[in-house]
Amino acid sequence: MKIIPLSEGAFTVDKTKQLIPFDLQKDKLRERNVGSLLVEIQPFVIVTSRDILLLDTGLGFTNANGVLQIHQNLLNNGIDPLDVTKVLLSHLHKDHSGGISYQKNGQRVLSFANATYYINKQEFDFAFENARSSYIIEDFEMLKNSSQVKFIEGNGIIDDYIKYEVTGAHCPYHQVFGIKENEEKIFFGGDVAPQLQQMKNKFIAKYDYDGNKSMQLRQQWREQGEREKWVFLFYHDIKSPVFKF
To answer: Is the whole-model pTM more than 0.85?
Structure first.
């Protein structure tokens, strides 16, 4: 399998949940609001023998030429967005779901016209019931009646090689994915396991729905991943987006 991080840049985020661009060469974290966290926004594409998988969809920003950033990142890596076959969504917070759809010729369209979108049904319902700064409904509202969405629940397997598991912890219906092909195992922990450093230290995040559970899951995954030689994907890690213990 081929793994390609699709970085959309570094940002700081504080209790307001606003993402502010951060220039690693010029900006200083201490000059940002107290409690600001420095994060990367980084979806991943995985090329398997059967699929081109996209894991989460980034912010949905467009570049200076008006091209959706995640489209440009794919094109820069030789992948046509039309060739993406599955979009796997850990949850629907705005920094993970912004690229689900976009405005084209005055209309909102799905960003990946030939892909099937997989999202937990309870997470989808929860997002509509709890619309606030973490969720931007217009980004994913069109999935409600789309033939391209598959609402999944609980734990299960897609096409015999993509495992999904509801973890909660970061938000009530957050889910993670494990992808296994031949002897390779890739694990994507979304925002329960967003950075390598959090896997190495016992860390309880105030922004998590259940910070203690998140910490316990990270320890569990690290131990299992070390034994089974998983490749970990970290969505918010600036230095180590792809890592194997």
So the answer is: yes
Predicted pLDDT at 205: 83
User: What is the domain count for the chain?
Assistant: 1
CATH number at residue 185: 3.60.15.10
Domain limits at 78? 2-243
Q: Measured at the alpha carbon of residue 215, what is the angle toward residues 237 and 150, in degrees to the nearest 5? A: 70
131: tokens are: 């619309």
Using an 8 Å Cβ cutoff, are 11 and 24 in contact? no
Res. 125: pLDDT tops 80: yes
Q: Rounded to whole angstroms, how far apart are CA atoms 197 and 195?
A: 6
- Cα distance between residue 145 and residue 92, in whole Å: 17
Q: What is the pLDDT of residues 137-153, one digit of tens each?
A: 999 999 999 999 999 99
